[in-house]
Design goal:
This protein has about 140 residues and is of the alpha/beta class. The chain contains 4 helices and 6 strands; from the N terminus they run βαββαβαββα. Strands 3-2-1-4-5-6 form a 6-stranded parallel sheet, with helices on both faces.
Amino acid sequence: MGIRNEAALVVGCGTLGSEIADELCDNGYNVTVMDWNADAFHLLDTSFDGARITADATCATELEQAGAKTADIVIAVTDSDAKNVFIAETASAVFGVSTVYARVEDESIGGLLDDWNIELLCPHRLCLNEFASLEGLTESEQPA
């Protein structure tokens, strides 16, 4: 795949973060993955050719050093909703990143981010929507 000349910063290299990083890399993005635990990088595909940075993304200085200031896209997918929201808000408000995603388990957090250009990745909601689609359910028929 050709180079897109777009820089992506993926924060959190767990199962989801590593798969997102691999997918972006495979599609020509210049990818940097950031995780506080260097052992997490073993989840990346052997073909991953992006940067790996071991640092605490809740520190704005370390987030900037990882490339948040020049990133075209930031995806926060750590194991903590609070960290993901903080990282996403910092990327958006402080560094001016135009495309920002935050993985959250608690959908109610979405209301706190209404004034930000942050898209939420809510696994529970995504799975429920996919189930409803597979079953041909309308919104009113979906289980709560």
